[in-house]
Write a structure and sequence with these properties.
By secondary structure, the chain is an alpha/beta fold. Helices cover 54% and strands 9% of the residues. Helix 10 crosses helix 11 and helix 16 crosses helix 21. It holds the Pfam family NAD_binding_4.
């Protein structure tokens, strides 16, 4: 029996004998132990190679379709910055490397401790121990701020007893259905994963902030007064142009009813009233103290009983130096807290403009279109082309998750520092960004463009092109040519083709929302936040990890990384899977935008040339 000369089996007696026996039984004269591939084997191998090559090409195409244009531009840019390896380059010493790695180890240790604390795998923090077995009564729980507050309590204070949420029937849904649907929202997914049984601790209580006594039944009122230990009043109408009667009913009369309910609670430990940093806009330097109200609580309640036809003509006189009914009624609500909360463990927290989440439970989440959120959505979809604003003014905004942590901490702080029969001033906390992490409107918009321009939405109607101005007359000029004239042309085309006309109506709503922001985008205020800083300093490190709210640690660059992306996904409901399609559409809109600008310039030049010729002819004639 012959083997292939290179075969190692020939050198082994046992294998040589077994191969020989096998070859004899099969009538084989020579065995090639390495084997020779048949034609079918070669064809199969070639087919697999071609398939692998095709898959690799598809992966490369997919990667190219979703890569960030800015990164591509930088990679292809021949004048991109080059690292300096010349003799002047400063190299890192061994000691510096040791310090660097030591800091890295410390950071890793902090991150690991943070994971243990936030996942509930470490010892309970002081705030978590405080909330253990407590019954919380929450107003405004179905609103933007309230949802994030409930989520945080369920996830980080899972040992609490119950969260009673005041809910009214709305749009044909009863309170139980509304709360059930709300808890199915995406923002609660993380809480469900980390505390699956927590959903059963959220209990709806039928009521209404506008109704006398909050519209509570006798049974619910008895249950609340006998069980509730913590009250958080975050309910408010956030419509700045709300009717005075409605704004008074919710913001003032409702707050008064909450305070009266708190007085009846047998085991009350703390009550936190969520106001607004803009409740005292008539003062340029807003401190953490009470100010003289524009009207007494009782006087405003009496005025609110009048018919709207009587109130509307005198409303500007009533508001005085307050910009709208929201700020006006929130100022009177603080007076209600001062008057009816005396002798109780009460605190007021004044957040500035509340925007999407900074970190928890996910970055960039929001479901509110008011304020800067609506502004950025309008810019990102190409709908908003001009805005009356001063880009150099401070934009005082705070992320909703940090605001929620401040509410939870201030409630704990109030309970810990309150003494029976205390008659001292009620603590007020100005939770603002301008005092420790200031950002101007110009910086905020520029950062969102920088991080968001590569993540457009398929629902964009035109390419980005905002023309901000601090001149109101220039705004009116821009508004006519960039908003109303295009809307008029589109509606005229729709009328001729038998389609529905809605652009003029749509832009009327857009400008109405923009008008609400005008007052805050053309001026700024100086805020004191000493009480907030002192509260932060008093917390142990573990609580600072689980309930972070220190604005000095906040980065606006980090915030804007996902701000526009969050609006795209959670508010506009445009999934990230559509990103390649959105980028193609964005590129088309860009070229259409550039073509339109060229055409516009040509038309303007032609008109100017025609006018010049006409004037010359008249002068010469």
């Amino acid at each position: 029996m012959n083997f292939s000369a290179e075969s190692p089996l020939e050198k082994t007696e046992v294998t040589r004998e077994k191969i020989s026996a096998w070859a004899d039984s099969h009538g084989a004269k020579q065995v090639d132990v390495y084997g020779k591939p048949s034609n079918s084997h070669l064809q199969e191998l070639e087919r697999v190679r071609n398939l692998s090559k095709e898959l690799q090409n598809n992966l490369n195409d997919l990667e190219n379709s979703v890569c960030i244009p800015e990164e591509e531009k930088q990679a292809m840019n021949p004048i991109a910055p080059i690292l300096d390896y010349s003799e002047h380059h400063e190299f890192v010493s061994a000691n510096q490397l040791d310090d660097y790695y030591a800091k890295e180890d410390e950071a890793d240790a902090r991150e690991e401790e943070q994971r243990r604390l936030t996942k509930g795998k470490a010892a309970k923090t002081a705030i978590q121990r405080f909330y253990k077995d407590q019954c919380v009564f929450l107003t405004g729980g179905t609103g933007f701020l309230g949802k994030v507050l409930i989520e945080k309590l369920l996830r980080s204070c899972g040992d609490l007893d119950t969260i009673y949420v005041l809910v009214r029937p709305k749009k044909g849904k009863d309170p139980h259905s509304r709360l059930h649907d709300m808890l199915d929202d995406f923002v609660f997914h993380r809480a469900h994963e980390e505390n699956p049984k927590g959903i059963h601790k959220v209990v709806p209580v039928v009521g209404d902030m506008e109704e006398p006594g909050l519209g509570l039944s006798n049974e619910d009122r008895k249950m609340i007064t006998s069980r509730v230990t913590i009250i958080i009043n975050s309910a408010a109408t956030v419509k700045f142009d709300e009717k005075l009667s409605v704004a008074t009913g919710i913001n003032v009369r409702g707050t008064k009813s909450v305070l009266q309910l708190a007085k009846e609670c047998k085991h009350l430990k703390a009550l936190t009233h969520v106001s607004t940093a803009f409740s005292q806009t008539h003062v340029k330097h807003i401190e953490e103290k009470f100010y003289e109200p524009p009207m007494t609580v009782e006087a405003l309640e009496a005025v609110a009983q009048l018919d709207d036809s009587v109130i509307d003509p005198i409303l500007p006189t009533l508001l005085g130096n307050r910009p709208n009914t929201y700020c006006f009624t929130k100022a009177v609500a603080e007076e209600a807290v001062r008057k009816y909360g005396e002798g109780m463990p009460v605190a007021i927290l004044r957040p500035s403009i509340v925007i999407s989440t900074y970190e928890e439970p996910v970055r960039g989440w929001t479901d509110s279109v008011y304020g800067p959120t609506g502004l950025v959505v309008g810019i990102g979809t190409g709908v908003l082309r001009t805005m009356y604003m001063d880009l150099d003014k401070l934009a005082d905004m705070v992320p909703v998750d940090l605001t929620v942590n401040a509410i939870i901490a201030s409630t704990y702080h109030t309970a810990n520092n309150f003494k029976e029969n205390q008659t001292s001033d009620i603590p007020i906390y100005n939770f603002v960004s301008g005092a420790q992490a200031p950002v101007t409107w110009g910086e905020f918009i520029e950062a969102n463009i920088r991080h968001g321009i590569s993540k457009p939405t398929t629902k964009a109607v035109w390419y980005y092109g905002l023309n901000p101005t601090k001149s109101y007359y220039m705004f009116l000029f821009y508004n006519f040519f960039l908003h109303y004239l295009p809307a008029l042309l589109i509606d005229s085309y729709c009328a001729l083709t038998g389609r529905k006309r809605n652009m003029l109506k749509f832009y009327s709503k857009v400008i109405k929302l923009a008008h609400i922001l005008f007052y805050f985008s053309t001026q700024d205020w100086r805020f004191s936040d000493d009480n907030v800083r002192e509260m932060w300093r008093s917390l142990p490190t573990s609580d600072k990890t689980v309930f972070p709210f220190n604005m000095a640690d906040m980065s606006w660059d980090y915030m804007t990384e996902t701000f526009l992306l969050g609006l795209r996904v959670y508010l506009v409901n445009d999934d990230l899977s559509t990103l390649p399609e959105a980028r193609k559409k964005w590129n088309r809109l860009y070229y259409m935008h550039q073509c339109l600008k060229v055409i516009t310039v040509c038309v303007v030049l032609y008109i100017a040339y025609s006018l010049f010729n006409l004037i010359s002819w008249l002068v010469m004639g």
